[in-house]
Amino acid sequence: TQLLEQSPQFLSIQEGENLTVYCNSSSVFSSLQWYRQEPGEGPVLLVTVVTGGEVKKLKRLTFQFGDARKDSSLHITAAQPGDTGLYLCAGGTNQAGTALIFGKGTTLSVSS
Amino acid sequence: KAGVTQTPRYLIKTRGQQVTLSCSPISGHRSVSWYQQTPGQGLQFLFEYFSETQRNKGNFPGRFSGRQFSNSRSEMNVSTLELGDSALYLCASSLSVNPGELFFGEGSRLTVL
């Protein structure tokens, strides 16, 4: 059974701090996605990484896919209150189609 | 363009009842997936439909079923509801069956009493 372990589960920081969220598995994924979910809404895709070692940047967010395609990280620089939300990683394989394996999420709270 | 629409947004049922949830995907999207989200287990895959055919099914009991219509709209049904079925049920649509971008609806919040 494929699992994605996400850490930390909760993160409470002050505005301006940096943070990193980790997503680890013993399984290889063909793609790794990061979503952000706000209360009362569905998850919204932030990024998809597909190549081992790939790094993608989205403004203050940096996403990395591990060389072996088993792990990923999300780094936020100078966090802002607007970054508050639930961050989810999700792994996919070509065989499983849209049946993604989700981590349990990291709840981030950024206070001003 | 309009996003994924799920109805109803909230509902309360009692144990033993059954429930039907509806999902209208983004226009042009032929793949619809359903996920269950709970605080303890997170998001878990229920099933995926493409062109009215179920392509994948998650590890859920047979009480959970679904279908897709020719206009790509999808419904899922849960029979003989149990307390543990209380969850947010999320529908997601995508252009294809590849593990690309999923567009999620706001979900249907089911409470079983």
Describe the structure concisely for a colleague.
The complex is a heterodimer of chains A (112) and B (113). With 112 residues, chain A is mainly β.
Q: From the helix content, strand content and strand pairing of chain A, which structural class follows?
A: mainly beta
**Uncertain parts of chain B:** none
Q: Report the mean per-residue pLDDT of chain A as an integer.
A: 94
Biggest chain pair interface: A-B, 26 and 28 residues
First-to-last CA distance of chain B? 37 Å
Secondary-structure element string of chain B:
EEEEEEEEEEE
Largest sheet: number of strands, sense, barrel closure of chain A: 6 strands, mixed
Radius of gyration of chain B: 13 Å
Q: What's the total count of β strands of chain B?
A: 11
First-residue to last-residue Cα separation of chain A:
41 Å
Helix content of chain A: under 10%
- Please tell me how large the radius of gyration of chain A is: 13 Å
Helix content of chain B: under 10%
Mean pLDDT of chain B: 94
Structural class of chain B: mainly beta
Oligomer type: heterodimer
Largest sheet of chain B: 7 strands, mixed
Low-confidence stretches of chain A: none
**What proportion of the residues of chain A form beta strands (DSSP E)?**
over 45%
How does the overall form of chain A come out from the CA principal axes? globular
DSSP E strands of chain A, number: 11
